C-alpha cells in the first residue's frame, strides 16, 4: 500500500491568491489535484490522503495539512499551486518545483515529478528549487511544492483556463507518482471480501494499514466483521472541517457519540429522538462526522441521524 498525501493550495475564499481577473488560485489547483486523484484511483494499492477541503469552502491550515500527512504515515507529499508575480498581467512564465533545502529524498521526488508537469503544461521549465516552505519542512516524508504556472501571466493563464490541459496535467502528475512509487495499473478502488477466519488485524497487515485506518476507511464502529463483507482497502480519505449551524436528530435506537474526531474514541450512547446542536462538520477518513456544541462528536451518516436547520 502506497500512501500519497496531496493537496490543492489554499481555499476558494483565501484573500489574495487570485488572477488579475479574480479567478481563484484554489480552483486551478483543485482541477489538477482532482484529476490526479481520479487517475491515481486507476492504480492498485494506492491510498490518497487529500489534505485540502475538496469543496474549497475551508482554507485548511498548513499545520492541519502536514499533521494529516504525518499521522497517516504518507509515503510522499505533493502540494499543488499556481504562482503569482506582480498580480498584474505580465509575460513571465513557467513551471517550478520546490523541495526542502538539503533533503535528498525531496530532491529525488522533485526530479521524478517535475519534468512531467513541465511537459503537460507546455511552459518554460523554471527548474527545481529549494525553499524553506512549511509544507516541505514540516512533513516527515519526501515532499514537494509545485507551481504549475503563473496566474498573472498572459501566457500561462491560457493553459490554466483550458480544462483539458488541467486534466492532462493531473494525469501526468498521477502517472509520475505511480512510476516513482512503482504502483501497478488496473486497480480502481481496491476492495477485499472477508473470508471465514479473517481478522481486522490480519486484513490490515496484508494491506499495509493499521486497524484504525482500515476501520476509518470503512466507517466501522467496532471490530466485528463477517464473511462476505466487502471492505475498502485503498481509496481517498480527507481531513478537514467546516462550520455548521444545524441540528442532528438521532434516528437509530441507540448510537455512539465520540470524545474526539476519531471513530475509535467512543464515549457514550445516545438514544433515538435526542437532538443536538451541531458546531462543525468534519470528514474523518472519508466519512462525515459532526462536532456537537457539547464538544462531543457524532456520525454524519444519514442512515443513523437526520440533519436539519431551523
Ligand atoms: Zn499558492
Automatic annotation (TrEMBL):
Source taxon at top rank: Bacteria
Species whose genome carries this gene: Virgibacillus pantothenticus
One cellular component (GO) term of this entry: outer membrane-bounded periplasmic space
Annotated stretches, region: Disordered: 1-24
CDD domains documented for this protein: LysM (cd00118), MurNAc-LAA (cd02696)
Protein known as: LysM domain-containing protein
UniProt keyword annotations, A-Z: Hydrolase
One Pfam assignment: Amidase_3
GO molecular function: N-acetylmuramoyl-L-alanine amidase activity
Annotated ranges, domain LysM: 190-233
